Amino acid sequence: RNSEKAENSANACQQEDDELVDLGGYKVNKAVIDMLKLGPAKTAATYARELLRQVFTAEELLGKSITGKQSNAHKEKEARPQLDPIRVNAVVKYTCTKFHLLKETAVRSSLSSMLNKGKE
Question: Where is each BEN domain found (predicted)?
Answer without folding.
Answer: 22-120
